[in-house]
């Protein structure tokens, strides 16, 4: 149990690393004060550009993948791999380095599932990409792709992973509550739209 607790804490701290904030800082930009104020890749893209956004996306994904990889390395089993992965997502969403504020967890969640459930991670990414290309709304793409994640787990992977998928989808929904309201009002910014 001590090992599990340490892995959960380490995953939370790793998830808390605000990659977008650090990338923006190298460009002399305070990411929390520009655009939407969000620390994720979408706001980096709008506020700084494509390369910093790609770096942010990769870094945020790696936080989730690394958490699951560590749990797997120590032979924690499927349930605890998922738990450690969820801890990394929560770390991103409620970063200790940002006063327990953070991002929306999309890239970190995808990073978790890249290792936890590769086939459903690929399906989730494809759904996200199709929605982005057809609507230009990153938030809508995240909502649709992750709401469908539990169904894809049932169809294409072990049902043992369903609780983790449900929680990941729930976190995405909660963190996108403002986006949902803006989508309904027609005021949501499209991906790539400069601020």
What can you tell me about this protein's structure?
The structure is a single chain. The protein is an all-alpha fold and 195 residues long. The protein has one domain (2-185). 72% of the residues lie in helices and 0% in strands. It has 11 helices and no strands. 51% of the residues are buried.
Task: Provide a brief overview of the structure.
The chain is mainly α.
Strand content: under 5%
Q: Order of SSEs, N→C? A: HHHHHHHHHHH
Question: Which stretches are poorly predicted, pLDDT < 50 over at least 5 residues?
Answer: none
Percentage of residues in helical conformation: over 70%
How many strands in all? 0
Q: How would you describe the shape?
A: globular
Count of domains = 1
- Main pleated-sheet profile: none
Mean pLDDT: 95
- Output the structural class: mainly alpha
Terminus-to-terminus distance:
47 Å
Gyration radius, in Å: 16 Å
Multimeric organization: single chain
Q: Helical segment tally? A: 11
Keywords:
single chain, globular, mainly alpha, 195 residues
Topology:
Elements lengths: L1 H15 L2 H8 L14 H7 L2 H24 L3 H17 L12 H11 L1 H18 L2 H10 L1 H8 L5 H14 L1 H9 L10
Helix pairs in contact: 1-4, 1-5, 2-4, 3-4, 4-5, 4-6, 5-6, 5-10, 6-7, 7-8, 7-9, 8-10, 9-10
């Amino acid at each position: 149990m001590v090992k599990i607790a340490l892995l959960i804490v380490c995953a939370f701290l790793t998830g808390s690393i605000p990659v977008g904030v650090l990338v923006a800082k190298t460009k002399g930009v305070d990411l929390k004060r520009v655009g939407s104020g969000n620390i994720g890749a979408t706001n980096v893209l709008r506020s700084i550009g494509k390369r910093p956004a790609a770096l942010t996306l990769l870094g945020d994904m790696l936080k989730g993948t690394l958490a699951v990889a560590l749990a797997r390395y120590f032979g924690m089993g499927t349930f605890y791999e998922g738990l450690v992965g969820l801890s990394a997502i929560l770390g991103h969403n409620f970063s200790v380095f940002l006063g327990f504020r953070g991002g929306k967890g999309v890239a970190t969640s995808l990073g978790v599932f890249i290792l936890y459930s590769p086939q459903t991670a690929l399906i989730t990414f494809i759904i996200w990409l199709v929605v982005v290309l057809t609507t230009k709304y990153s938030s809508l793409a995240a909502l649709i792709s992750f709401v469908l994640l539990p169904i894809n787990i049932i169809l294409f992977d072990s049902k043992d992973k369903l609780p983790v998928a449900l929680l990941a989808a729930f976190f995405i929904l909660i963190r996108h509550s403002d986006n949902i309201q803006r989508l309904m009002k027609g005021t949501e910014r499209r991906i790539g739209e400069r601020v």
